[in-house]
Design goal:
single chain; mainly alpha
Length: about 220
């Protein structure tokens, strides 16, 4: 991944530079008008947020099972990115909702579970920062619980009556919307992959530095 990091960074930068022009040329949703452009950031960020939560949970489960430090570092990095992408979702969602539903927020199943999932990721980071001895295992258990919440977030709109659009919206997007949407989704995923790689490298360097300090003390 190190050899691919710089080429992917260049590609991601170019995609983010071009994305506003592509979104500007994309078709408007008939009832939403200009506000519909938020869709190209909100929905892909939600997809990446759920992916990151799953990565965090799987890595945490591996850490609980094998006590693998690499899995723990992956869980930590994924939790931070879950919070980051969740913040994008939480910030852009009400802007869409105010135009579509006439309210900024509604405590329906999808919104509530997404908010809970975001809070779980934040709780994980607080536990790891301030939990003291044993915080790694407690945080890992929290992350696994957060991953168990992901299917409910995704499927909630299909099982409960909710203002939020169903999961069938994305696969049935019109061609003039589908292209910019998946372009934006790929750009946000590339950014996630690059940030995750950089964060893992930082954690490895920190672990190596801690090992040097311990060796010096001995």
């Amino acid at each position: 991944m190190r050899k691919l990091f710089m080429p992917l960074l260049v590609v991601a930068t170019a995609m983010f530079a071009y994305a506003p022009f592509m979104i500007d040329q994309a078709a408007y949703e008939s009832s939403m008008g200009l506000v519909s452009k938020i869709f190209y950031f909100h929905a892909p960020s939600g997809m990446v947020m759920l992916l990151s939560a799953v990565v965090c949970g799987i890595a945490s489960a591996l850490y609980l099972w094998r006590r693998n430090p690499g899995a723990d570092r992956l869980a930590m990095a994924s939790a931070e990115l879950t919070v980051l992408y969740g913040l994008i979702v939480i910030a852009t969602g009400p802007l869409w909702a105010r135009k579509a539903w006439g309210i900024w927020w509604d405590w329906d199943a999808r919104l509530t579970m997404s908010f809970v999932g975001w809070l779980i990721a934040i709780s994980y980071l607080f536990v790891r920062k301030y939990g003291g001895p044993g915080s790694d295992k407690l945080g890992a258990a929290l992350a696994v619980f957060g991953t168990a919440n992901v299917p409910f977030i995704y499927l909630s709109v299909n099982f409960w009556r909710t203002l939020h659009p169903k999961t069938s919206v994305v696969p049935t997007l019109p061609p003039l919307i589908r292209g910019p949407f998946w372009f934006s989704a790929l750009a946000l995923f590339l950014m996630y992959l690059l940030l995750l790689t950089a964060r893992l490298h930082l954690e490895r360097q920190r672990a190596a530095l801690d090992a040097l300090y311990l060796a010096e003390e001995d």
